[in-house]
Amino acid sequence: MVAVSDTVVTAREVRKSFDDEAVLESVDLTVEDNEILLLMGPNGVGKSVLLSCLAGSGRPTAGSIDVFGEPATARADTTSFLLQDALCHGKLTGRENVDFYRRLHPAFTDDWQRLVDRFGIDGDLEKRLEDYSGGMTRKLELSIAASIDVPIYLYDEPTAALDLTTIQTVHELFREQQAAGKTLVVASHRPMDADVADRIAFLATDGIVATGRPDDLLASLPPILETGTANTNALATAIEGEPYAVAGNVRGFLDEDRAGDSRDTDAGGRDAAALVADAAAATGIETDDLALVEPTYTDLFNYYTESGPDQDEEFR
Ligand SMILES: Nc1ncnc2c1ncn2[C@@H]1O[C@H](COP(=O)(O)OP(=O)(O)OP(=O)(O)O)[C@@H](O)[C@H]1O
What we know:
With 316 residues, the chain is of the alpha/beta class. The protein has helices spanning 47-55, 94-104, 111-118, 134-146, 164-179, 214-219, 232-236, 256-259, 272-283, 297-307; strands spanning 7-18, 21-32, 36-40, 62-67, 70-71, 79-82, 152-156, 183-188, 199-204, 207-212, 224-228, 239-246, 249-254, 291-293, 313-315.
């Protein structure tokens, strides 16, 4: 966990439209020096568009983005941007793609050699990218983006197409970059990427709806009820939003107005048995079929992107 420090990126009331189609609406976001900030949100909400604005390659339609106190567009030397799908050229070999970026970027280093070795694609450098698998392409792109020696890295879906072991390797790489003093913004809709984050920011259609440390955000969730899929409709009568499937069961966020509230909120305590009993009475589900579960990052993602109410909170 990094200490609280200086802000390196500030986005204020950023809007972005394509033709007349609004993608980003009033996005306010800060990135602190040396943190790993995870930008989460559902498909199509505008994470890539926001990253391109932070990188200075996309211009906001309204609002401002400062990087180290200057407009993002004036600071191309400060960021390395891993694009979602478009970093490498399919007709070039792995080595030729690396050479392209080595010539293009003055801050390109030899780190790529160590990284392709670590990702296990060092033997594939003479193949054309069009013959790489999706995961191999991502590994090469990560090797290239991480080899550029700049203060800020913007990674768009870095773990997409990667297997679980490789995701751990990517997380290690991120921690090493942080230990070397770098700042990382990682856009993802994979809850497991929260493992590596100092803070998470959730992007929804009306802007950033919550930011905070992962543990604080988890602790801020309402009680989560879980039951069998046969009880999906009944569960829906006692929760906020829609039930969602998790490992063969369904879950939902308890709506205290609908299910009754047995919590001793003054003392901050939770009487799980009483809560379950209230929810069972409200839904008609047997208490044996209803459980209160510990929140996971998947629940957190669902709350802020699918099932939860509008939120506007900052946990620091
Ligand atoms: N150059 C463009 N012209 C027109 N529309 C665009 C352009 N770039 C992005 N969009 C639109 O902006 C919206 C947000 O796209 P974006 O790629 O930022 O979403 P995302 O949150 O990164 O999604 P995903 O998780 O699927 O990668 C989409 O509706 C997309 O079609």
